Amino acid sequence: MDTKALRQKILDLAIHGKLVPQDPNDESASVLLERIKAEKERLIKEGKIKKSKKSAKTSDTPHYEQVLFEVPEGWESVPVSELFCLNPKSEISDDTGVGFIPMTCVDDGFSGNHSFEERIWKEVKKGYCHFQNGDIGVAKISPCFENLKSTIFQNLPNNYGAGTTELVILRPINVCAKFYLYLFKSKWYIDEGTKYFKGVVGQQRVHKGIFTDLQIPLPPLAEQQRIITEIERWFSLIDIIENDKDNLQATIKQAKSKILDLAIHGKLIPQDPNDEPAIDLLKRINPDFTPCDNGHYKQLPQGWTVCRLEQITDYEQPTAYIVKSTTYDNSYSIPVLTAGKSFIIGYTNETTGIYSNIPCIIFDDFTTDSKLVDFPFKVKSSAMKILKVHKAIEIDYVAMFMSITRLIGDTHKRYWISEYSRLEIPIPPKAEQKRIIETVCEIFTQIDKIMEGL
């Protein structure tokens, strides 16, 4: 189940007036709008906010200034600037403790959470945006905007804060901030914003008009509250679904590890007494081979033996295959790899220094993560080894062993030469290695089908 899409569907219904029924007894949004205008005029007169500057008119009305969809009876469609004070400034004592919020302190996604660092006002009052509890902050730079980095500031020290200028600050006037936070996280709003990106790729920002002139819905105040309650009810149910899914995914990950553990201990499939013993296989690789002292793997099946990884693998430094430019594009053909969770970090159009002696295993020298690779590639950095497994041993079997065998140390050191290559690996007969690989693949395929159906 795509829970992100489900959340977006809830928000889409909400901002179109279809999530909760309208109540004809609610004070209409037109009356609310008059109160908002009166409050803005009062704040302007008192010098607390500045009068918004009107955009210069052209012969064509920009798309975002048009009414973009019909709203229910009793609602209004108004420019963003009618409901908010944009990027307000704070005037407080220099020695006041405040909350400082860089972009990293604003959560992405739907939670709307943020953290802050404590600072003194004189340290942050210049060069940063200003805000206070109850203000909304929305990221204006890509990809933070698309990743829904937006929040309502709360629990700030002494009510005030400052932060990255890549946040647009919107101070609500007589409207429910949370309703509009949800609107700013809606796919509709994000899509409208991305239509008007400005700047070069990697440094694109949302056009200011999306925060001033874009026509957005204004429901009656009472209905805003009912919509918030209904959104949160649905989101709580989705949280339960996601938690159950996360728990199931963790259980499945544990089950896969257990299956691999059974496989490398000879307990997943029955042995065939007609198989050639593994020790004969290893003696063909090295006539002087002597089995390891089977201390770590007691009670292995008949015909199995134990050796060190370095006895069946060779490694190569990746220096010759490091990508020169990190300007990646999905239209390019050569993947750039890391042995960590991300694996393929991008694609390059470089035509030299491509590793093609496949299949191989890439090994992160610091984290001991590993991946089996069966296609040509380049690498991101030198923090890995490229491993070749002796052709007499099934590389898939070695990759299975390595996938559940990690070393985690306290020091930042390279592990392959110092420790990992010396680890002992149980070796079954060649024919049994193939049967193990086939059985594991069949089981994992069934598990993956179950996960895809969730």
UniProtKB/TrEMBL annotation:
GO terms for molecular function: DNA binding; endonuclease activity. Residues 72-248, 301-445 form the Type I restriction modification DNA specificity domain. GO terms for biological process: DNA restriction-modification system. Keywords: DNA-binding, Endonuclease, Hydrolase, Nuclease, Restriction system. InterPro entries: Restrct_endonuc_typeI_TRD, Restrct_endonuc_typeI_TRD_sf, Type-I_RE_S_subunit. It holds the Pfam family Methylase_S. Belongs to the type-I restriction system S methylase family. This is Restriction endonuclease subunit S. It comes from Bacteroides clarus.
